[in-house]
Amino acid sequence: xxxxxxxxxxxxxxxxxxxxxxxxxxxxxxxxxxxxxxxxxxxxxxxxxxxxxxxxxxxxxxxxxxxxxxxxxxxxxxxxxxxxxxxxxxxxxxxxxxxxxxxxxxxxxxxxxxxxxxxxxxxxxxxxxxxxxxxxxxxxxxxxxxxxxxxxxxxxxxxxxxxxxxxxxxxxxxxxxxxxxxxxxxxxxxxxxxxxxxxxxxxxxxxxxxxxxxxxxxxxxxxxxxxxxxxxxxxxxxxxxxxxxxxxxxxxxxxxxxxxxxxxxxxxxxxxxxxxxxxxxxxxxxxx
Length: 288
Description:
- Helix content is 75%, strand content 5%.
- The chain is built from eleven helices and two strands, in the order αααββαααααααα.
- It has a two-stranded antiparallel sheet with strand order 1-2.
- A hairpin with a 3-residue loop joins strand 1 and strand 2 (115-121).
């Protein structure tokens, strides 16, 4: 029996060696493919196309432009329809988290001058209070992500148009609010028919940047310039400790991180040139 065991052991060892060699050879192409894919993934995070460079430049310009318009008297009225929408995103954040944590929403009101109010019963205030600013920032990051591509912007614009019209239901119904919101919806529609909806990207980006940084500008306005005692950060500080300024800064930092994540994801997902995006746009709900 021993000799048989020895021969079969030697045979088994040789068989294992051959099998291992064959497995390495067979896996070679797959390993190489994974290495190439990893290299491509790393390259995807680099800004290579002109479309990406232009988009990043426009985002930077929007940050400066919106910050100026937000604080200049009279000129700030040009932001009304977009501010109403961003306030709506903010209140949606409160409302959704209230429903998810066992609460009930009684009403939502929007006013571009005074902001928004969500009247609700129940819910976890530790979650619902920061959800307004963080929710609007998360939506803004998604819009910035979509703003890197024409087709993605088309999809986002359909959602935005519906949200604009919803703000008419909850918003303060004066003639200026109604007119500016209808003009904003008209702008979205018009952009669909210009160069295969390419300008739509820049409208979506504008709303995304404004929504992402709404917490930064609004917290600065409430807690530093006007020192409003009824802000979300003030109420959060009264209930859970700390200062309203501290919580405001924390939420602002998180909002900026959301914005950065949206930009990075957009760069990775949409490396196409303007010409490639235009060609793709012709095949998705084409206009002209």
